[in-house]
TrEMBL record:
Protein name as it appears in the record: HTH psq-type domain-containing protein
Species of origin: Popillia japonica (Japanese beetle)
Domain of life: Eukaryota
Species lineage: Eukaryota, Metazoa, Ecdysozoa, Arthropoda, Hexapoda
Length: 175
């Protein structure tokens, strides 16, 4: 489920509307079902909202995404991936998914799905959502290196050239 499209309007009613309905019930003495019908709100949802207000709990409206990491942990993971990308050539998708699972275990996260434990890495859905939340990340597949390019990076090919260039620059007083 990469991009889920909601089929109903459930969970989209604003908190302001619920707060206004609660004020009408508490201050004006209107009945709950009457206010819910006038504002086209589900009366059961309004009743739950009112219960939270009476118990002085933080009242929430709508659906919250079930995040595995908190904001600080996600920021640590994202900054580490960016650091790896700036030092090296970046991390592959599989490496990032394994890294995220290891971070979840290391951070002692309580909500780790069983499939993560089974596979030893995070799922594709979580990874897609993570990259959407962290737009600065760009995970790409690395390109293959040709055989001629790979052999040219051997120490026997690059080291003498590097040493001769350094010696020229050190001996030249104009630089």
């Amino acid at each position: 489920m990469m991009t889920y499209k909601h089929k109903t309007e459930r969970g989209t009613t604003s908190k302001k509307l619920f707060q206004g309905a609660a004020d009408a019930i508490i201050n004006d003495g209107c009945k709950l079902k009457t206010v819910a019908h006038e504002l086209e709100i589900c009366h059961t949802t309004l009743q739950r909202f009112m219960k939270k207000i009476k118990e002085e709990q933080t009242s929430t409206v709508g659906y919250r995404p079930r995040l595995i990491f908190n904001a600080e942990q996600e920021e640590i993971l994202a900054s580490y991936i960016l650091t790896c990308a700036s030092i090296y050539f970046g991390l592959l998708l599989e490496e990032v998914t394994k890294l995220a699972y290891e971070c979840a275990v290391r951070f002692d996260v309580q909500r780790i799905p069983a499939s993560w434990h089974k596979n030893g890495m995070v799922g594709k859905d979580w990874f897609t959502s993570f990259t959407k939340r962290n737009l600065s990340l760009s995970i790409r597949t690395s390109q293959a290196t040709t055989a001629s390019r790979a052999t040219s990076f051997k120490g026997c090919h690059t080291l003498p050239t590097f040493e001769s260039d350094c010696l020229k620059r050190l001996s030249d007083p104009g630089i």
